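Protein modeling request. Please complete all fields; requests missing the sequence field cannot be processed.
Requester role: graduate student
Desired output: 3D structure, token encoding
Chains: 1
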Amino acid sequence: MYPIIAKFGPITIRSYGLMIALGVIAGYFAARSRAKKIGLTDDHMIDLLFYLLIFCVIGAKLLYILTNNFMTYLTNPIYIIQTGGEGLSFFGIIPAGILVAIVYAKRHHLNIWALLDVLASGVLIGYAVGRIGCFLNGCCVGQPSDYWLTFRFGPMDFTRIPTQLYTSLLAFLGFLHVLYIERHKRFYGKTTGFLFIDYAIITFFIEFWRDVNKVKSLWSLFSANQWLSIFLLPLGVLIVLYCSQYQHIRLDEPENQANIGLVVDAKNNTNKSDVIEL
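Delivered output (278 residues):
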């Protein structure tokens, strides 16, 4: 396909890296538009983005190594550095991002579910843009097919299903769904829960058309990402159910007190507040 966009002397602009960068930017601005609702400034968001980039890349790389030819990386650790940003698992971003959010929320006395919702609102648009980079790079390809909408990702390759584009389209629709939920939610945590649900559904079904190895256990029915999706979907449902009971938002909060995240305890009918140190 088009792994290299342009060259300027010793500088090479690769399509995968470029689209990942654009995805991060798109996700940042989507989250930034919601961050002000809980009192986060642009400085807070840039600071948070810095830590998210570092730890999410590490998490994505580690999970990819664990689920793809682990022994190759174990016997040749230098290969981890040589592959650089290639070989990343989106599932690895989830625990890394949650860990960073928990630490940041505690540091700034912020409701963790409110912060996770802000971040969740920008995840799928970044993922959608990043998958276009996979298409241009010729990675994460679909199975060989002779259907009308297929692409050849190499001179000696078969024509294949463009699962990267299908994933990108579904992720964009998921982004619109999550954004709608974020704007109309009545309790913190709902956006995060539905992000997990949407991503799990998208990944589970797309994996049937991807050219990936099945896990050599449990009758080899599914790929590693599908098994992770089976775990992630009920987790998302549990988050929505839990937060619907304990994270109700005080809807009468004045606009000039946006830096105070007030939560109504549905069980005890009392107000709780988490104040951000600005």
